[in-house]
Amino acid sequence: MTISRRNLLKGAAAAPLASMALPAFAQDKIKIGFIFLGPVGDYGWTWAHNKGREAVEAALGDKVETIYTENVAEDASAEAAIRDLCNAGCKLVFTTSYGYMDQTIKVAAEFPDVKFEHCTGFKRADNVSTYNSKFHEGRAVLGTIAGKMSKSGTLGYLGSFKVPEVVLGVNAFALAAQKQNPAATVKLVMIDSWFDPPKEAAATETLVNLGCDVVTTHTDSPAALQILEQKGLFGFGQGADMSTFAPTAHLTAIEDIWGPYYVARAQAIVDGTWASADTWDGMKEGTVVISPYNAAIPADVAALADGVQAGYKDGTYDIFTGPIFDQDGVERVKAGEVMALADLAVIDWFVKGVESAS
Amino acid sequence: MRYKLEKRREPSMAMLVITPVASVIVTMLVGILAFDALGVDGWAAVRDIFLTPLLASHKWQDVAVKAAPLVIIALGLSVGNRAQVWNIGAEGQYVIGALAAAGVGLAFGQAGGFFVILAMIAAGCLGGALWALIPAVLRTRFSVNEVLSSLMLTYVSLQVLGYLVGGPWKDPNGRNFPATAPLPEGQMLPALDGSTIHLGIVVALILPFAFWLLMSRSTFGYQVRVVGSSPHAARHGGFDAKQTIWATMLIGGAMAGLAGSLELTGALHKVDLGFASGYGFTAIIVAFLGRLNPFGCLLAGIVLAVTSVGGQLAKTTVHIPDSTAGIFQAMMLFLILASDILIRYRIAKRA
After folding, report:
1. Count of domains forming chain B
2. Any CB–CB contact under 8 A between B178 and chain A?
3. Which of A333, B35, B82, B266 has the smallest count of CB within 10 Å of its CB?
């Protein structure tokens, strides 16, 4: 082989690559663990997180392997489950529900060499990051569609718990609907569970009986959509495209896309660059994605919904722009003001037009 | 050749011991076969569900933490069940007990120490007992079936919990998430260094002896057993059935409340919406699995804790789905209860 300049360059480029690749082959793959709230087959919240896990396998499968535990209760058993993953040799553990917060912090203190990622919480440590998604941006799109599609002007919201994430979702949905129909009201039911198909179905029946003709869900199964399909009414998917469960009723869905974040954090572990952080991404970053629209949505409504999406992507739209009044009619946000992220994160009041139905 | 069941003159003590053990072994064997047939490593699954929690020392603490509330609640329930009093609402009494303890803790602010913790636990017992008093009053005054009233009060208790942790007791630094503030260090039960083993587990180990003394060495225990097995004889003997209902409901409620306050001060250190996670219901199974015997309850509580801890472990190690662990528990319970028939009956050849 003649030594040409080109070959020399090739060799120089290849050498560090080879030396970098070698340790990866020589040692075991890095283990990454996931704690899931529901079953991976819930077709909602946990399903979406599991898709994120699969994205990590797909992107970094030669360097990492993933393990997971599903249906982990948000009590002392979560602590044991997180500890199990650490004992199994995980270097990075994703705990994917708010209720694992204190357990994550506690176990993280016992395993300083393991990094943790806690979803939707607010307590951090040197080895604990938090991450969340601006689901409410998607709720604004759903509210826009619902405000236009509802004949009765009475919308339903199937909620889980009164936590800031859900309050934000309710408010974004109601405010967006009222932009299209100022008289629109939102009936709210909380079922005290994230995943309970029979309860979700029963609560949906209640909302329908109260006159709601479009219902959105903040719980994780397609049960509500199946009821709406039977009744010939409309609804939205939560966490994932659920159109196969209710082809007629399913107007669109908020899809939680965790893959890019999970891959980035896993890559940081591989590279040794992981650092504790607080991440709250949304539509702009691709964490919140709206599913394809149902053919039942007229073109003008679809255009309005697209407008909201485009506005969030280029930063020209924010549903939490004043004036905003609370349930008692008190002005909480002045005209032209936009609520700060820090205020959104702790919100505990509902906007005007939200009525408790439970 | 045909067989028939023949009633034994006396329940077989040998079978009483053999059938539960045999049931566990049969469950393990059927499990290995079923999993292998499904293409999963059956032995690994069964090993992780039934044996690893017992053999791996780092899993002992998980078993102990899980077993303690089950044992304590089951002890209280078994007293009532002996007297044919059916308290199904231990879950609610557990919740109210924990809330009572949390309330006392909050009243003391950041203060802690032995007497504060003692007051919290006493409040827990009292809260649970008072919650159980409602179905007792309804039953003795208005003949309301305690199965329904105690069960439905569980849902009421969850509403109380939701109201308190989302309203007046909400952690001011908790970003408006519905939960109480974490307990100050001084209000936590002492725990072994570097482990989750807390003093409540010691209580769960001592209580079976106390209940054994109560049930087999005291007039009260005798009264409960007589009222339960032959109400007519009890009346002739001068035992008051109503008084027995009151007493046994109070004991059941107090124990559930105790378990709730120990879970708060020993394990979870705060009350949030996930606090009630079914111990009160599982304890009903524990009481019957333990044959309403105090030491039986201890053993049964450990067995259920092992399968639950092991089931969770097997989800991570051999990737069995969550429902599989449930199937294992159900299969074991079914076999134990079904084989109960061998205690009172024997299989004999038909003549």
Report:
1. 1
2. yes
3. A333
